[in-house]
Amino acid sequence: MGAPNGNKFWLARSSHGRKLLFENPEALWDAACEYFQWVDDNPLVEEKLFHANGLITKDKVYHPRPMTLSGLRLFLGISEQTWLDYRKRDGFIGVCQEIDATIYNQKFAGATAGLMNANIIVRDLGLRDGQDVKQTTTATATVTHSVDPVSKLADILKDYDSNSE
To answer: Distance (Å, rounded) from C-alpha 31 to C-alpha 96?
Structure first.
């Protein structure tokens, strides 16, 4: 059974829609800084074998974890659409740009220092080495060339013999 016709229950609700997770840009920045700190505190760990003086040892090598927008959204517990909405919201545009710049800078600096895989980071950041060159040519040619190698060699030898006399 549905609500009775003409009801005004909607007037009694205390709020319209879900409350914002971040009430102000400072709260979003503080949460992003927590993510940045988590990234620094949780590097990627690789177990590697080393060989020296006839001994094989296993040790851990720590690599910096690249910051990503998807990682930030997972950390904050928000969807991509929610992030895009914050980027358009008055007062949040600047802090979202600052967060984007921080993530970009960390990945770019890590790649240029050789701490991160440059090929992956370059693609992620939308950078490329080189230019796109488009060349269009339309030409059709048919070339038929047949040479009998024995007769060609015979002609060369005849020319050689006649010049050497």
So the answer is: 12
